[in-house]
Write a structure and sequence with these properties.
Layout (H helix, E strand, L loop, with lengths): L38 H20 L4 H19 L9 E3 L27 E6 L6 E6 L2 H9 L1 H6 L2
Parallel strand pairs: 1-2
Antiparallel strand pairs: 2-3
Length: 158
């Protein structure tokens, strides 16, 4: 999540770089009698978590508090990574970064993505025309087959 637009902290004009946070979500056993979440329920919960996180960061007016909040979010994520949870799936969005508009001297980029990764991951990025979103999804092979055949996933992909 790009925090620069959300925080109440004054950022010096000569500053540059990215300020981000990690929002860690646990879904298993989150609610009583919950055995399986549908795609829409997961998206709704994640959206709610992002909204709540943005609201929290919007109240920050102290650099030390901001540092502490970002550090704590990374520590929470690190703790999740090193637990025995089998279904940890990092999710990242580089939407609105306008990466396809970069030109390193040989023209605009034709492809923006990730190097091959050996772990579960969902990575979102705007398409080259800023009219859609690419979703790079890496799963275990036995998980990818049902994912690709999921009716809700097929309905929103091309």
């Amino acid at each position: 999540m790009n925090l620069c637009e959300k925080i109440g902290l004054t950022i010096p004009t000569n500053s540059y770089g990215n300020l981000y946070t990690v929002i860690a979500a646990r879904f298993g056993g989150f609610m009583a009698n919950e055995s399986e979440l549908g795609f829409k329920e997961v998206v709704n919960r994640m959206s709610e978590m992002v909204r709540n996180s943005k609201a929290g960061y919007a109240k920050v007016v102290d650099g030390e508090k901001l540092h502490s909040m970002v550090k704590d979010s990374l520590m929470d994520f690190t703790e999740l990574v090193f637990t025995s949870e089998e279904h940890l799936i990092p999710f990242s969005s580089w939407c609105r970064f306008q990466l396809f508009k970069n030109d390193f001297g040989w023209g605009r980029l034709a492809l923006v993505g990730l190097a091959s990764v050996k772990f579960r991951l969902v990575f979102l990025i705007d398409d080259e025309d800023d009219e859609g979103i690419y979703a790079w999804v890496t799963l275990k092979e036995d998980e990818m087959i049902p994912f690709k055949h999921d009716v809700e996933i097929q309905a929103i992909t091309s």
